[in-house]
């Protein structure tokens, strides 16, 4: 449970209570998919069944709040690992595009990357994005600037 922070717990409690109409302290496992979807985590049916089976060990078809937290912690934690994996991938991408190992990517190369990511992007949008990223107008983007744009952090 320690993997979940207070705001995550509050969010889960609100969702749990909303679906525990009769205030029995349990919710049906049928509801799990819907709840997770509401919280912005859409899982395919196989994954969903897999984690429900893991948590509902006695196959009662119902989960208590603590079980529900255990379930949520599973993929909230997985998601954190995903974030780390994404940053690792971005780091590799940055190295790849920083061909000469200068520690920066030129805005020309960055435009190519954006076009690859989204081929419907217009030249005007590209210019606007580049202007925002390369705030000092140096014509280059370093790792910090790159990460900020890619992760929104
Ligand atoms: Ca710059």
TrEMBL record:
One GO cellular-component annotation of the UniProt record comes to: myosin II complex
* Any one GO molecular function term: calcium ion binding
Ranges of residues in domain EF-hand: 7-42, 43-78, 85-120, 121-153
Which keywords fit this entry according to its UniProt record? Calcium, Metal-binding, Muscle protein, Repeat
The family database entries (Gene3D superfamilies) matched by this protein are listed as: EF-hand
**SUPFAM superfamilies in UniProt:** EF-hand (SSF47473)
Pfam families, alphabetized: EF-hand_7
From which domain of life does this come?
A: Eukaryota
- PANTHER family recorded for this chain? CALMODULIN LIKE 3 (PTHR23048:SF0), MYOSIN LIGHT CHAIN 1, 3 (PTHR23048)
Q: Name the protein family.
A: Belongs to the troponin C family.
Name it.
Answer: EF-hand domain-containing protein
Tell me the organism. Arctia plantaginis
